[in-house]
Design goal:
47% of the residues lie in helices and 15% in strands. The chain is α/β, with parallel strands linked by helices and 448 residues long. The chain starts with 6 loop residues before the first helix and ends in a 5-residue tail after the last strand.
C-alpha cells in the first residue's frame, strides 16, 4: 500500500527542519500507539535529507553503540571511533552538528529506560550545551505512549521542557479510508467501508495488511483476521503488555468489561467481582488514554452520569471477539471464530457506525461540541416505548452556539422510528437545547 495522508504532519516536520538548519537545533517528539505509522511518517518527511537513523533495540549498551557507530559513519561519511556508551555517541553527534546540517532520528526512544536510564540526563546535558551552536533536526519517536509522555512532560524528568514540538499521531481520517477503498477496491460498498473502519480502527498498519492481502470485502477481512498466522490474533495482547508491563491483568479485565458493554464504574466492578477499580480507570483515562469518560452533552464535570468507552476502536473489536474467544483460538477453531464475528457483524457494526459519524462530524471542524445525550428518567411522551430511557446517539453543537445537529444512527433506515425520534428531540430541547435551532436526521449506511 502506498503512503497516505499525513500532509499536515509532514509540513510541520519540514518547517521544524528548516528552523533547525537555519537557526539552531530543534527537538521534535513523535508518539502514538503501536502500528500508527511514526517511522513511515518520519522517513517520508525526511526522504530527501541527510539522515542518521538509530533504532533502540533491547541490547546491552555497548552492542547498541557499536551498531550506532557503523550507521553514523555510513550516513555522515565521517570516521567514527569505537564508542561503548551512548553519552559518547551523543556528544560525537552534537559535535558533528557544528560542521554539517543533518536530521538525527532515534526510534523507540523510550527503550533507553531498559538499557541505561542515565542516558536521558546525558542527552539533556549535551543538548543544553550544544543546542544553540549546532544545526541538528533531532527527532525522537516511541510507541509506549505513557513512557514517552513521562520522559518529556513530567517535571521531575531531565528532558522535561526540552521538546520544541510534541506530535501524537492519530488513525486515518474517514476521508482517507474512503480514498484507500476507492484506490484498491473501486465500487466498494459502504458496508465494506464500515467493516474496514470496524476491524482496523483506521490504524495504518492494519489497513495496509488488509489492502496488501486483497482482503477488502467483509468476508475476506474476517477470513484474513481469523487465521492461525494472522498478526491480528495477538496484536491487542502485545500492544497492551508493551504499554502496561507485567501488571496488565486488571487493565485487561477493565478493557474487556467495557468492550463487552459494561460501561459504568459500578457495572465494571460487578464484572470484576466487586473489585475497586477507581485508580485503574483514572490511569487508563489520563495516563494511557485508552478509555474516555463520556457524559451526556452539557452535563457538568461533576455529574455522576458517567460512562466509559474504549477510545481505540481496534482494541474494542479485539477484546470483544479475539480475546473473549481465546478458547476457540487455543483449539485452532479459526473457522468458528470467523463465523461468530460474521454473524454478529450487523449488530456490532451499528455502534461503530455511530462512532464513524461522530468522527466524520469532528473532521468537518464545524462543531464546538459533539457527543450523545441520555437521561435516566422517562419522558411522558415516550413512556409507551420499549426503550428504557431517553437517549440520542449524536448531539453536535455548531460553532455559532446557536444551531445544533441531532441524529439517530441506524444501519438500515427501515429500522428508524420517526415519531419516537421526534418525541426524544422534544424532550431534549426542553431539557438542554431550548436556545438552539435544531436540525435532525436519521444517519444510515447510505450517508457514509
Amino acid at each position: 500500500m502506498r503512503f497516505y495522508n499525513r500532509t499536515e504532519e509532514i509540513a510541520e516536520l519540514q518547517q521544524i527542519k528548516e528552523m533547525a538548519y537555519n537557526s539552531h537545533s530543534k527537538l521534535t517528539v513523535i508518539t502514538g500507539r503501536r502500528r500508527i505509522g511514526k517511522t513511515s511518517l518520519i522517513l517520508n518527511a525526511m526522504k530527501d535529507e541527510l539522515i542518521v537513523y538509530l533504532f533502540v533495540g533491547r541490547k546491552n549498551e555497548a552492542d547498541l553503540c557499536d551498531g550506532f557507530c557503523d550507521e553514523i559513519e555510513r550516513s555522515l561519511s565521517v570516521f567514527v571511533p569505537k564508542m561503548n556508551s551512548f553519552v559518547e555517541v551523543f556528544r560525537f553527534l552534537m559535535e558533528q552538528g557544528k560542521r554539517q546540517k543533518f536530521t538525527l532520528v532515534i526510534d523507540e526512544f523510550q527503550e533507553f529506560i531498559n538499557i541505561n536510564e542515565s542516558i536521558f540526563s546525558d542527552i539533556q546535558n549535551y543538548w543544553d550545551q550544544f543546542r544553540t551552536e549546532t544545526n541538528i533536526n533531532f527527532i525522537v519517536s516511541g510507541s509506549i505512549y505513557s513512557l514517552m509522555m513521562r520522559i518529556f512532560q513530567d517535571k521531575t524528568e531531565p528532558l522535561f521542557g526540552r521538546a520544541d514540538a510534541i506530535m501524537k499521531l492519530q488513525p486515518f481520517t474517514t476521508a482517507v479510508l474512503k480514498e484507500i477503498m476507492s484506490d484498491y477496491k473501486p465500487g466498494y460498498t459502504n458496508d465494506e467501508l464500515l467493516a474496514l473502519y470496524t476491524y482496523t480502527g483506521g490504524v495504518p498498519k492494519y489497513v495496509e495488511l488488509l489492502v496488501d492481502n486483497n482482503a477488502l470485502t467483509i468476508s475476506k477481512m474476517i477470513e484474513y483476521i481469523c487465521q492461525s498466522d494472522s498478526p491480528f490474533i495477538d496484536e491487542g495482547r502485545n500492544l497492551l503488555i508493551q504499554e502496561f508491563g507485567k501488571q496488565y491483568g486488571n487493565y485487561f479485565s477493565i478493557l474487556d468489561a467495557i468492550s463487552s458493554g459494561w460501561n459504568t464504574q459500578a457495572e465494571i466492578e460487578e464484572f470484576m467481582g466487586e473489585k475497586s477499580i477507581g485508580g485503574h480507570l483514572a490511569k487508563l483515562d489520563s495516563v494511557y488514554e485508552l478509555i474516555k469518560k463520556t457524559r451526556p452533552i452539557f452535563a457538568k464535570k461533576g455529574s455522576q452520569r458517567v460512562r466509559y468507552e474504549v477510545s481505540d476502536n481496534f482494541l474494542r473489536f479485539w477484546f470483544r471477539y479475539i480475546e473473549r474467544n481465546r478458547p476457540l483460538i487455543e483449539l485452532g477453531n479459526y473457522k468458528g471464530l470467523a463465523q461468530i464475528i460474521k454473524n454478529d457483524y450487523p449488530t456490532y457494526s451499528g455502534k461503530t457506525l455511530e462512532l464513524y459519524f461522530k468522527q466524520k462530524l469532528q473532521e468537518s471542524y464545524e462543531y464546538r461540541e459533539i457527543g450523545s445525550w441520555w437521561d435516566s428518567k422517562k419522558s411522558k411522551t415516550i413512556e409507551d416505548s420499549e426503550e428504557p430511557q431517553n437517549e440520542i446517539d449524536i448531539v453536535a453543537i455548531k460553532l455559532d452556539d446557536k444551531n445544533a445537529f441531532v441524529a439517530e444512527v441506524k444501519r438500515q433506515r427501515k429500522n428508524f422510528k420517526p415519531q419516537l425520534f421526534e418525541s426524544k428531540i422534544k424532550f431534549l430541547k426542553n431539557k438542554v437545547l431550548n436556545k438552539y435551532h435544531i436540525d435532525s436526521q436519521c444517519l444510515n449506511l447510505d450517508d457514509m
